[in-house]
Amino acid sequence: MKDLLQLNVSRIFKCDAKTLFNAIGEGMLIKKTGSLPDKTSIDFRVGGKYSAYWESCEDTSGEFLEIKPYEKIVFTWNKRPQKESAFESRVIVLLSEAAGATTLHLRHEGIPSTAEYKAHSDGWMTTLKGIYDELIVYFAKLENNNSGLDIGFDLYSTINAPIEQVFAAVKEQKQLTPYFEVKMNQSFEKGKSLTWDFAGHPTFTLHVHEIIENELIKFKWTNTHVIFSFSAVDGVTTVRLQATGFEPNQKDLRSAFSECHGWTEFLSSLKTYIEAA
After folding, report:
1. pLDDT tens digits, residue range 165-177?
2. In the prediction, which pLDDT does 50 show?
3. pLDDT the model gives residue 135
4. pLDDT at 2 (0 to 100)
5. 3-state helix/strand/coil string of the chain
6. In the chain, what are the domains?
């Protein structure tokens, strides 16, 4: 029997965890999957059920297994329960608030095939972007509240190596410095601050907010929130990087373009370093 797959996706929201949790409780996560509004039902409580239907005539239903306010939501994900291609899986949503932003990390366990993995990866990423866009509209309607109006970017790279190897190459000081031209005083460790020194630039201090082994690294430097998320399927690891926190002005636009270029080089160097080993 082929091993079941696990998918990890993340997104940073410039809002508090309570706001994001309440939006999910009101059904935003399920609704933003594209489920038809008149065929979507959600009973957000432990033991409560939900169901979702799409125009493709596929359907999903499940039950909420665990709800920890502002921190964690666990529910089953039963795809096409009445068809031969049905499968049962589980979704875990983790919320982590730090430095004025909240990270939503979604782990989907028990995916049965590469095709389903790809479909659900695309689907969940689209869902999280939909939530982000909706919160921007919501915050924009609030007087003197610019939360959610920051600028950010998303990057990803696929690397032909096990997820443990790729994760270590980002997290560990001794592995990161050979391929990225930076002096780093220590490895990433939750709750710690570390420094990066680039030639010709002032020292940057990184504050590490969250680490989930082989899944996620989140930190803040200057005013930018950065999150790495890792997933693997069939021996290939996908690294996604999201940076956000740039304000909608000309100065921060230039900073966003500059950082996007720098992180693109980082991912390219990481891929070359690992695959050439």
Report:
1. 999 999 999 999 9
2. 95
3. 84
4. 56
5. CCCCEEEEEEEEECCCHHHHHHHHHCCHHHHCCCCCHHHCEECCCCCCEEEEECCCCCEEEEEEEEEECCCEEEEEEEECCCCCCCEEEEEEEEEEEECCEEEEEEEEEEECCHHHHHHHHHHHHHHHHHHHHHHHHHHHCCCCCCCCCCEEEEEEEEECCCHHHHHHHHHCHHHHCCCCCCEECCCCCCCCEEEEECCCCCCEEEEEEEEECCCEEEEEECCEEEEEEEEEECCEEEEEEEEEEECCCHHHHHHHHHHHHHHHHHHHHHHHHHHCC
6. 5-140 (3.30.530.20), 151-275 (3.30.530.20)
- Distance between CA atoms of 83 and 123, rounded to whole angstroms? 20
Q: What is the pLDDT of residue 82?
A: 61
Average pLDDT taken over every residue of the chain: 89
131 Cβ neighbours under 8 A, 6+ residues apart = 11, 13, 20, 23, 28, 29, 32, 104
Phi, psi of 168 (to 5 degrees): -65, -35
Give the pLDDT band of residue 223 (cuts 50, 70, 90).
confident
